Amino acid sequence: MATKILKACHLITKCAQNLPKNYLLSPTGNTLILKNCTRNTTSFFNKLPAEQIWKGVTSVSNAGKKRGRGKGSSKKVAKNLNRGQVIGVGKANILWPGLSAPIMRGRELVQQQKLPTDPDYENRLIKMRDEMGTFRRIKLSPIERGWSGAKLPGRSIGPPDPIGEDTFEGFDTKALEMKIVFNMKGNFGRKRRLSVLAVTGNGNGVAGFALGKAVDTKAAIRKAKNRAGQKLMFINIYKNHTVYHDFFTQFGKTKIFVSKKPEGHGLICHRAIKTICEVVGIKDLYAKVEGSTNLQHVVKAFFLGLLKQKTHQEIAEEKRLHLVEFKKENDYYPEIVASPSTECRKIDEIPTDEVLDFTQYCLDNRIVLKKKKLPPAYTKQPSWQIYLKKQEYIRNKPMVRQNIMAEYGELRSFLTDQYPECRPFRPEVESKETTEEELNQ
C-alpha cells in the first residue's frame, strides 16, 4: 500500500512540472486552477508623472544644497511619444474622411482610400522627438548684444507700454542690471524674486530710470520699463552732443568726475554711464568713477550730476558777468557765450576772494587732483642713456647738426673727404682792413 502511494506522488509531481505557467494544481491534486494572467499591480512608477519621478532621482535636499551638493546633476527630460502624432495619420498612409480629409469635396463624397507610403514619416517623428527638450541659445547680432554676450544687461528691451493715448514714440529702454534677490519672511520663508534696473529715454534730453522686481523675468522687465517711463526728467545737453561743463557728483561711496569734451571725442566712461548717455543723447564725454562701483549708486550719482549742471546763461545771471570762452581751434580768441540780463558788475564790486575760474566754480570750489605720471623705471638705468645716444642721429636732426658742429667744426658728411665740394655754401664776408688813421680818428 505504501509503495502505491509513493508512486502516485511521483506521478503527480512530474505532471505538475510539465504544466503550463498559467495553471496551478489544486492541493487535492485532482483539479487544475487557471492563474489570472493580467495583474493590476500599482507602484510609484505608474502613479506619478515622469517629471516627478526624475525629480525624485536627481534632486538634492535643502541641506545638501547648502553644502554644495547636486551642482552637476542635470535634469533628465523624458521623450513625449505623442509629439508629432496626428489623428488619422500614421505609418499606413490611408485617407480617412472626417479625420485626415473632409467628408465632402465640392459635391463629391470622399471615399476611404490608401495613399502611397511616405518613407520619411518615421524619420521625421524620431527627429522631432530628439529635438524635444534641447535648449537653443538665441543668436543676436553684435549691435543687439549687451555687455556680456546674450545676457540681458546692456540690451535694448523696447519702449515703455503706452498709457491710454500717451505713446512713447522714439523712446528706447535698456537694461542695466538683472539679479536674483531673496527676502526672508516668517510665514512664507525665503522668497526669491528677480530685480531689473532699466533706463529709458528718447535721445533728446528726456530720460528716466527705475527698478522692477517680480517672480517672473518678463514681469520684472515689464515693471522696470514702465516705471522708468513714469519717472522721466529733462536734462540739458550742450549743442546736442555733450554736457555744459565739468562737474563732480557723489552718491554714497561712489564719486564721479565728469569732463566736457569736444565733438568727435566719444564716450570714454563706465559702461553704465555710456548706456545712459546713449539713451539721453550725449555723444562726447569723459567720466572717472572713484570709490564704490555699485551699479545702482553709479546710475543715481550720474543722474544727480546731470540734473545739477547749470546752463551758461544761468551762470552768467548768478555771477552778473559775461561768460567768455577760449577755444584752441579759434587760437584762444575770446568769445562771449552768455551775458546777464542786468548790468554787469564792475571790477570794484567783485570781491578779491571770489572764484572766477569757470571749472572751479562748476566743481563747487574744488580742484581735481591730476597725478603726474611717474617715468618708467628703465629710464633711470645707464643703458637708457646709451640707447638715447644711438637714437639721437635718427630722431633729433637739430641735435645731429649740433654734434657735428661740435665735433668737426663744420657741417659735413662721410663724402666730404673724398669730395671737398660736398660742403654747405657759406657766403663770404668782406673783411675791412682798419688802418692806423681810422683807429686814430
UniProtKB/TrEMBL annotation:
It comes from the Eukaryota. The keyword Transport does not apply. Its main location: mitochondrion. The keyword Hydrolase does not apply. One of its GO terms (biological process) is translation. SUPFAM superfamilies: dsRNA-binding domain-like, Ribosomal protein S5 domain 2-like. Keywords: Mitochondrion, Ribonucleoprotein, Ribosomal protein. It is found in: Mitochondrion. One of its GO terms (cellular component) is mitochondrial small ribosomal subunit. Residues 189-235 form the S5 DRBM domain. It holds the Pfam family Ribosomal_S5_C. One of its GO terms (molecular function) is RNA binding. Component of the mitochondrial ribosome small subunit (28S) which comprises a 12S rRNA and about 30 distinct proteins. Belongs to the universal ribosomal protein uS5 family. This is Small ribosomal subunit protein uS5m. It comes from Chrysoperla nipponensis.
